[in-house]
């Protein structure tokens, strides 16, 4: 659905799409570390950074800022695909995961806290911290090492009627595999219908569609710098039932409020730019007549284009061999995995991952080495690997860039 002409228009909307201000021309395949930024978000950020007024004052500027925030929240609710609950911004995606999990765990008593071994340390650390502080039973559902994901069946085997809080990783930033979120939540609620479910959507957000009506969760967190906005804030959606547990609030302040202090209007406004971009893209690839419909169409187009890119990287393009045809290459999660979302993680039996990343960078191809540390050890240690190369793409990348990567990879392995 993303034609070559449309791809050129898409690329024109992002800053530094084909060159680094410090390195020069380059292919950007490090999107899992932070996606490219919309030019509109850059402009919006500068605009609101210059405004001296605060919200909540009796003047036109303050009212305008409040209107911007209110409109951005409505747009974000559409993007999340839900018609209830509330959206708010915080320090970062990780901080928001800690906060939502803290509210859920401290707001319930006894029972089991449930997570999985595939999760990023943001959610696992928060669950582990409060389990130890409060003497709660924290259990981990094992992920499938071969597939690089955790299944609904695995959750179904682990969940018990006294499961009070569960966490789910929507997409792994190491394996690149997306979890079947609706199936997992259905498995949990079939046994523990009142369980509070918190989702780390940080890696998934740029790769397709977020549908919280289908997901049936209580909290969902994204980091906007990984979905075409800027650093410095996170965005969370929370259900009314999670809010009813009573998050920390100022004495005498408004009830059911998750926000502390003066909000950064620019944060809300730049996330509105993200929603507007999805809206625009959906109009380019469909005839949908509602914002949510266009967002859904954009998500489908993004997913389809990124599958074309990962298929080309794995299986080859033109006369270039794909990674699966290169001697000594092992692809995490397997080459034929329908859960893959715009990311290929691999290692070579002959060349160290760090050396591959360095050699690619010298040729102007930005990738990243994932080490078996506190971020990625849960994935790499069971595979017996100390490091792997992560190549992460987004829908603004092209098959020409994939071809460039494969050509350089062939040279690296030949050397």
Describe it.
The protein has 415 residues and is of the alpha/beta class. It folds into two domains: 168 residues, Alpha-Beta Complex (Aspartate Aminotransferase, domain 1), CATH 3.90.1150.10; 225 residues, Aspartate Aminotransferase, domain 2 (3-Layer(aba) Sandwich), CATH 3.40.640. 41% of the residues lie in helices and 15% in strands. A seven-stranded mixed beta sheet has the order 4-10-9-8-7-5-6, sandwiched between helices. α2 runs antiparallel to α10 and α11 runs parallel beside α14. This is Nitrogen fixation protein NifS. InterPro entries: Aminotrans_V_dom, PyrdxlP-dep_Trfase, PyrdxlP-dep_Trfase_major, PyrdxlP-dep_Trfase_small.
In a nutshell, what does this entry contain?
The chain is α/β, with parallel strands linked by helices and 415 residues long. The chain has 14 helices and 15 strands. Keywords: Pyridoxal phosphate.
């Amino acid at each position: 659905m993303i034609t070559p002409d449309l791809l050129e228009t898409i690329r024109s909307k992002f800053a530094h799409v084909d060159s680094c201000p410090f390195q020069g021309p380059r292919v950007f395949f490090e999107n899992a570390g932070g996606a490219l930024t919309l030019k509109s978000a850059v402009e919006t950020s500068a605009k609101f950074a210059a405004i001296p007024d605060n919200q909540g004052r009796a003047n036109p500027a303050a009212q305008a800022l409040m209107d911007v925030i209110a409109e951005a929240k409505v747009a974000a609710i559409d993007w999340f695909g839900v018609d209830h609950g509330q959206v708010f911004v915080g320090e970062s995606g990780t901080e928001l995961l800690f906060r939502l999990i803290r509210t859920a765990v401290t707001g319930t008593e006894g029972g089991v806290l449930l997570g999985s071994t595939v999760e990023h340390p943001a959610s696992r650390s928060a669950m582990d911290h409060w389990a130890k502080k409060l003497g709660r039973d924290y259990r981990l559902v094992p992920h499938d090492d071969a597939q690089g994901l955790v299944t609904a069946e695995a959750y179904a085997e682990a969940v018990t009627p006294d499961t009070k809080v569960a966490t789910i990783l929507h997409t792994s930033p190491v394996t690149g595999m997306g979890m079947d979120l609706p199936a997992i939540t259905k498995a949990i609620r079939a046994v523990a219908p009142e369980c509070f479910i918190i989702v780390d959507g940080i890696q998934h957000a740029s790769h397709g569609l977020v549908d919280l009506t289908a997901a049936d969760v209580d909290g969902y967190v994204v980091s906007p710098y990984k979905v075409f906005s800027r650093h410095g804030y996170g965005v969370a959606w929370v259900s009314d039932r999670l809010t009813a547990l009573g998050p920390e609030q100022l004495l005498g302040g408004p009830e059911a409020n998750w926000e502390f202090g003066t909000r950064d209007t620019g944060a809300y406004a730049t996330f509105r730019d993200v929603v507007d971009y999805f809206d625009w893209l959906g109009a380019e690839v469909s005839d949908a007549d509602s914002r949510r419909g266009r967002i859904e169409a954009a998500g489908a187009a993004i997913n389809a284009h990124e599958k074309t890119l990962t298929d080309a990287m794995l299986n080859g393009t033109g006369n270039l061999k794909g990674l699966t045809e290169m001697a000594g290459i092992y692809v995490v999660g397997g080459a034929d995995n329908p859960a893959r979302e715009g990311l290929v993680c691999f290692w070579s039996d002959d060349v160290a991952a760090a050396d591959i990343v360095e050699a690619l960078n010298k040729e102007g191809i930005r990738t990243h080495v994932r080490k078996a540390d506190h971020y990625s050890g849960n994935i790499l240690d069971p595979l017996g690997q100390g490091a792997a190369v992560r190549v992460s793409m987004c829908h603004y990348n092209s098959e020409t860039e994939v071809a460039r990567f494969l050509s350089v990879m062939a040279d690296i392995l030949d050397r």
